[in-house]
Amino acid sequence: MFSRPARVLGLLTLLLAFAAPGRAQDRAMASADTRRSLTAVETAEPPAIDGILDESIWTRAEPATDFVQADPLEGQPATERTEVRVAFDRDFLYIAARCLDSDPSAVIVNEIRKDFIPREQDAFEVLLDTFLDRRNGFVFSTNAAGARADTQIANEGREVNTNWDAVWWVAARRNAEGWAAEFKIPFKTLRFEGGPGRGWGINFARRIRRKNEVTYWSPVSRAFSIHRASSEGDLRGLPPLDPGRNIRVKPYALDGATRPVGGEVFDNDVSVGLDVKMGVTPSMALDLTVNPDFAQAEADEQQVNLTQFSLFFPEKREFFLENSGIFYFGDIPRNARQPSRFRPPEEDLLLFFSRRIGLTDTGEPMPLYGGVRLTGRAGAYGLGLMTLQGEESGVRPSENYTVARVRRDVLANSDVGAIVVSRDASGSADDFNRVYGLDANFRFFRYFNVNGFAAKSETPGETRNQATGKLAIGWEDSLKRLQASVMHIGAGFRDDLGFVRRTGVLRTFFDWAWMPQPERLRQRGIRQIQPHARVFSYYSPSSDLVSRTGHAGAQITWNSGAIFEYAFEPRTESITTPFRLRPDVAPIRPGRYEWTQHLFIVETDHSRAFSGSLRFTSGGFWSGTQRNVQASLLYRPNSRLVFDAGIQVSDITLEAPAEQFTTTLVNLRSGYAFNTNMFLDSLLQYRTDVRQFSANVRFNLIHRPLSDVFVVYNDQRYPDRNLTAGRAIIVKYTHMFAF
Fold this sequence. Notes:
Elements: H1 5-15, H2 23-30, E1 37-39, E2 41-42, H3 57-60, E3 68-71, E4 82-88, E5 92-100, E6 123-129, E7 137-142, E8 149-154, E9 159-161, E10 169-175, E11 178-186, E12 200-208, E13 213-216, E14 233-236, E15 248-259, E16 267-281, E17 284-290, H4 318-321, E18 349-350, E19 368-378, E20 381-390, E21 399-410, E22 414-425, E23 432-444, E24 448-458, E25 467-476, E26 480-489, E27 499-500, E28 505-514, H5 519-522, E29 526-539, E30 545-558, E31 563-575, E32 591-603, E33 610-621, E34 624-635, E35 641-654, E36 659-675, E37 678-687, E38 692-704, E39 707-717, E40 726-734, E41 737-738
Parallel strand pairs: 1-14, 2-4
Antiparallel strand pairs: 3-13, 4-5, 5-11, 6-7, 6-12, 7-8, 8-9, 10-11, 12-13, 12-14, 15-16, 15-40, 15-41, 16-17, 17-19, 18-27, 19-20, 20-21, 21-22, 22-23, 23-24, 24-25, 25-26, 26-28, 28-29, 29-30, 30-31, 31-32, 32-33, 33-34, 34-35, 35-36, 36-37, 37-38, 38-39, 39-40
């Protein structure tokens, strides 16, 4: 029925023949004989965490030195010296980093807020692989002002959870030689197997931002990041450790007043709830939540939708973010070398998408009684089980949401797994939706990935094809990227707890990029010229073309990190059902449409006080033309204050139907960090098509580790309507008790 998958995968197989030259270098890098090691030293007197490395332990401990560049000159020695030492006592792991710099005044610090962005400033990062499986771990990051960022990684960065939060301390200080940092990480913050003779994996990374230089203690290919745990070194000398009970109890109390748009009175909301986390085993965590509330979650940024499909909004609620990687299913790894503020999600299908729980399609909250989540590892297995029970509302019955995930490590860096996703309405035997899936992820020669999954849904009354499946292969090293995939989604496939963009199609995908960094260009200020091409094609079950989007272009990256990209994008769309681009314009008529659009992207150096981004699309659009501009200006006068102004203008002219309209979306973000534990942030947005203004202001005080005070103010109004503004003010207090 579908005959094109073999053509796509066959073409990529031929292209992979060009990948051979990169293998020998990487095999040498990963050889057990050349893997670096560092010995931790016990201390009887804990060092003061102040960024001043004057304790005797830091002269006795063996230093990790001789960092190696990943960028710009892969494999060459770092241009600035870095020394790292590790110590421990019964309860804590201590790490001291001395970041020497030939020009200390040039060290760049852009922010001090929690979960800062390391790539935009000088930064130092630590990877701890506590199970020594060369796959998973924890990353702790800081900059020269002592900002904190913590990340949980799984499967060497295939899943990266930047919203994971841990109890730990860090302090950093500039000095005449550069800057230095001291970390204090409680052992009970980490998951690990107790007992004697157990080593950990470890690696260190340093970014020297003015040179846009990235270096590692244990070398990592430029294609990857510190998340590549298989490239790590070994940490030795740790004694038999007891992970302890690791029990955390975190109650909350909330008081709020809310008035909907057009309402006359405020509804008071006083509630309490409880979150409990406990270590079932050294590597398994059980989370319990009673009456969860997400009022403090950051507001969504509005988006302009000029497609016939649903928009993708990311998850921002803490309960669903922690350990979320274990539930991720079936995607081929993608390495974001040059992050873009306009990068859209590439997923056509996410088998589990937690925003379907406790939120309507418009983002309105639905109350939950509570839930249970079990996540962690048992030997070679990664396990995840989550179930939550929703409250009954006036329009929906009480519903249960459950997802179960298991994944087994195989070979050196591969895994196979299964997932079950279920939504069941209480009191009804025929109101449910379940999805069952199997997936496999294999990696060979460190750069070659083979990835696939098969899944089937079960929905009462559905007689059409409820199956879906995907097969993908790819090669990605520091010089080239080659990927191809084929995915089939049956017309009857339904996933109430997933994100599915379209059904009844077969999608093929091809992606190619060439990423050389010749020295002669680098000497002239250009880090990389990257020609690339990709194409998404969708076919009906009868092999008719439904949609095709091509992209062929080149991206220039300067030594500063600024980029310019031009791309030529041919489009084909065949629709059988009319749809509206806006409620107030006539629908696009059924038929086949072909057009070409041109894409220009400019991003300046985000490490500077002033930086900006511009994305301009021009050309055809369905039966007419388009001009779409997305622009932003980021201003950081110092490490505490930030202003981020953005505008999107879409000017559309159609011939059939004859329509012309312009939509403008304006947003303004601002933030002030009083210190590394207290922040004030605001988001103001206005859309001209619906004439809607919204504001979200959030104050956050971390009064002790993992304990917060939130004060949130929301405002929503339609200035040209005779309606009272919707407003809410919420005060939430949380307090974490550890045992």
